[in-house]
Amino acid sequence: MKEELVLELSGVSRQFGAVRALTNVSFECRAGEIHALVGENGSGKSTLLGIASGFVDPDLGTVRIGGHKLRTDSPALARKLGLAMAYQETSLVLAEPVKNNLFLATPPEMRPPYWRRKKWARRQLAEFDLDLELFPDAPAGFLTFADRQLFEVAKALATNPKVLLLDEPTTALGPDEVEALHRTIKQCATQGIGVVYVSHRLPEVLEIADRITVLRDGEYQGTFDAHKTSEEQLVELIVGRPFDSAFPHRAATTTEPEDVLVVEGLQGEAFGPVSFTLLSGEVVGLAGAEGNGQAALLDTLAGRTPPKAGRVECVGKDLALISTHEAVAAGIQLLPGDRKHQALMGVLGVRVNATIQSLNKFSVSGILRRRSERKGVRSLVEQLEIRTPSLEQPVEFLSGGNAQKVSVSRTFLREPAVILAFEPTQGVDVGSRFDIYKALRTRIDEGAAMLVKSSDPIELAGLCDRVLVMSRGQIVEEIPGEELTELRIVESIVRGPGMSKAARSPLGVAMPTASSAEGTES
Amino acid sequence: MTTPRQQPSSALTSLVVGSRFVPVYIALALLVVVAWIWAPQALSSISLRAIAPYGAVLGIAALGQMIVIMIGGIDLSVPGTMSLAAVIMIGVGHGADENIGKAMVIAFAAAAVVGLANGLLIGGLKLNPLIVTLAAGSIVTGVVFRYAEKITVQNPVPEGLTDWVAKRYFGLGAVFWIGIAVTVIVSVILRYTVAGRRFQAIGANPVAANVVGVRVNWYQIMAYVFAALLYAAAAIALAGLLRRPGASVGNEYLLAPIAAVVIGGASLTGGLASPFSTFTAGLFLIGLRQMMLTMGLPTALQNVAFGLVIIAGMLVSGDRITKGVEQLLRERRRPTRTEVEEILTPMNQ
Q1: Which fold has domain A259-521?
Q2: Across-strand partners of A349?
Q3: Which helix (H) or strand (E) holds B225?
Q4: Between A15, A336, A348, which is nearest B200 by CB?
């Protein structure tokens, strides 16, 4: 039983345009094992999953599911052979209720009679043991991102699979939910399901996996026993170079810090009232379980959703916050977490994306100086080590880390007073992370203030001077710099009155927060 | 383009990105070959001289439509707006040359008002562009008919306009060169001005454009106004060409400009479009019509053929061609060992 291969990829290669996504990679997953797949973004993990699930056909190589060869380009056959996949960007029909989404995901022969699906859905969800208490009639679009992600896993389980592929299943999850998910996955493995677990959160991977396969730049780096591997070893394999300090050092402050952003009693639909002040040269973290108003607060400060009440002052100027134009002009710059939809113009090139906020700098009375623009962007591409074949490369073809660097490069060209960073390294590979921290740090050392919303406590501890913990839209605690550790932040989130669990309404339907509105808007 | 030499894929990328605008030129070349074989008289200089201005009129109208489509909208009020401008040339012009300037100013102003109304409803109030512009077109057509009753709509436009339109420079009519000039101007605005750049950004991703602080609503409104001005320009030229344009002169310009934009390779979801290939597509469509005419196809059959060509154009242009070229490159070209190493070296340092 232990040796039965439920998923087997041998000698798989695939190329997209000029980009080599995978080069001769072999991968196997036994029944009853949890096999983790790790690597930087752009290392080929997603392509590998795509090939395994039949959505992408390999240029070379074969895929076998449960011993049967997968014809190219046939997701339906893969599903029939017992493969189920939970996608990172969830595949829910947002306008349809939970019960219908689950019904849709279930193979016809396993579906209940149509009129009984509500009761069935509730029973199924309880059975999966994901701590997922959803109201079957709630539209999927009303769920928090965390719940959507867990529900995505539930949908995959509903097909009763032999192989379960999980693509970054914990990006939106809090500590609680990760635990529930891991419990369920382990349960699956004991039942003989082969689980392929793709993640860049190494502690999670080491905790749950039996074996770990590492990919780098589309090439196989080896498969390792999880119990005999350390985090440092893995990082080295992933990055391909020793990894000394993960966070850049702060420069010694020379100037007296000034108030850059003063927020007083600011209140929006999903948060507030909150009051805090950002000083120049300071990085303030925004922690808390997902969906507690952090996203809505940043959106309001960036001028995307008008506030209900309160006062915001940026560099001595009162802001009405009714338009993004006003906020940007005042010196507030948002780096959105959802880069594809909210930060970058995918079809346009690196140059155009980088300079969109600083066109005045590269123009004389409305006419662009393209040469100086190219020069400016080229030096930034070198400084930030953006890996791109040319300045005109459409950013949709860049990996997550490089795309984020393009987004960050805007702060170099415009030099804002306040940077609002929403999950600055979400979906960014380990190697690029440090580059991004370094770039942001450069801005801070030159006098900008930064507010960072992150769900990664290590990132907050490493990057911030102090951390504000939010719960149910309020700031419930401020962790000063000297106490700032990963443990302290997690404790504060977990102990706080609004733990992820309690933050949900009794029906299991999330409040219509900005984070859920975000998903439907784009 | 100046790019570091060791990067092999930049040329490939520009090939993939640029490929969407190529089919229209191929189609035009194909049309010329076909005409040369079956209807050589369509290629005579007289024939070309006769159709070039009409191609340019369609090209100018298509450029307006292109601007709207670039920001993810669509404009179905083109026929109404064009008829309006043409009728104003008759009504205000009174057949007298001294009125030409006044009539043109009023025609442009009236078109701008229609565009502004469209823009405010779509960019400002976020109504559906399809329905808004269709409704606006209906209103404007109503206004045109009412206005046509008050004036003698069968009258010609001022002779000065007709004369000027008939003038030839370098063998082709003035309208054609105006079309070329408009194309160049639109290209320059899109490529070399701050406004054009912001405009492109909105087309590519309105949400992100808003995040970075571009006034998306304002640019959307201006797109409809600018487009309406181009329709008016096309209509004035058309009025001059036809001499007696009548009140329903714009009716043919509902589908044709959209077809030209599509065949010109624009992305219907916004962002990508090329003024030159759009203008060329306008010439192509008129050329096609002319060829069918010379070949003696009955009108009914012409319409069918015209529709088929538009659908065929959609099949081989825009997003599909980009995907197709990418696919071809993937299957034809496996990187050599050295190339793989070249790509990997900067990553491993």
Answers
A1: Rossmann fold (3.40.50)
A2: A394
A3: helix B216-242
A4: A348
Q: Strand, coil or helix: what is A318?
A: strand
Backbone angles phi, psi at A157, to 5 degrees: -65, -30
B129's CB contacts (< 8 A; 6+ apart) are B68, B73, B74, B75, B118, B122
Min distance A91 CA to chain B CA atoms (Å): 21
Burial A388-424 (b: 16+ CB within 10 A, else e): bbbbbbbbebbbbbbbbbbbbbbbbbbebbbbbbbbb
Distances (CA, A) of A270 to A174, A304, A324, A514: 19, 14, 19, 7
Q: Which residues pair with A449 in a beta bridge?
A: A418
CA distances from A35 to A21, A218, B118 (A): 21, 18, 57
Question: β-strands A68-69, A60-65: how paired?
Answer: antiparallel
Nearest-angstrom CA–CA distance, B90 and B156: 6
Is the predicted pLDDT of residue A176 greater than 60, yes or no?
yes
Q: Which residues of B touch A17 (CB under 8 A)?
A: 9, 12-13, 16, 326, 329-330
Cβ contacts of B195 on chain A, cutoff 8 Å: 366
Look at residues A277, A279, A307 and name the one whose alpha carbon lies nearest to residue A293: A307
Please count the other Cβ atoms lying within 10 Å of the Cβ belonging to residue B39: 17
- B296: domain range? 18-323
C-beta atoms surrounding B113 within 10 Å: 15
Delimit the domains of chain A by residue range.
5-239, 259-521
User: What does the alpha-carbon distance between residue B257 and residue B263 come to, in Å, rounded to a whole number?
Assistant: 10
pLDDT of residue A471: 79
Q: Give the burial class of B171: count Cβ atoms within 10 A of its Cβ; 0-12 exposed, 13-18 middle, 19 or more buried.
A: exposed
Which run of H or E residues covers position A373?
helix A370-383
Containing H/E element for A166? strand A163-167
A2: closest CA among A27, A28, A26, A33? A33
**pLDDT single digits (tens) B125-161:** 999 999 999 999 999 999 999 999 888 888 888 988 8
User: What is the C-alpha to C-alpha distance for residues B238 and B244, in angstroms, rounded to an integer?
Assistant: 10
Residues of A in contact with B333 (CB under 8 A): 15, 18
Contact list in B for residue A61 (CB cut-off 8 A) is none
Q: Is any Cβ of chain A less than 8 angstroms from the Cβ of B189?
A: no
Query: Which of the listed CATH numbers 3.40.50.300, 1.10.1130.10, 3.80.10.10, 2.40.50.180 matches domain A5-239?
Result: 3.40.50.300
Q: In the structure encoding, which two tokens stand for residue B45, read together? A: 């200089």
Rounded CA separation B38/A362 (Å): 53
Enumerate the H helices of A75-144 as residue ranges. Answer: 75-80, 98-105, 117-128
From the list B192, B212, B344, the residue facing A357 with the nearest CB is B212
Coil, strand or helix at A40: coil
Please give the ipTM for the structure prediction.
Answer: 0.81
Based on C-alpha coordinates, what's the Rg of chain B? 22
The whole-angstrom distance between B349's CA and the closest CA on chain A is 8
SS3 A12: strand
Averaged pLDDT, A204-211? 90
Dump pLDDT digits (tens) for B24-83: 888 889 888 988 888 787 778 888 888 899 999 999 999 999 999 999 899 999 999 999
* Residue B331 domain flag: no
- Residue B328 domain-assigned (yes or no): no
Six token digits for residue A491? 């404790």
Q: Is the CB of residue B185 less than 8 Å away from at least one CB of chain A?
A: no
Instruction: Tell me the mean pLDDT in the region A466-475.
Output: 87
Provide the b/e sequence for B240-279 (b: ≥16 CB within 10 Å): bbbeebbbbbbebbbebbbbbbbbbbbbeebbbbbbbbbb
- Cα distance between residue A410 and residue B201, in whole Å: 14
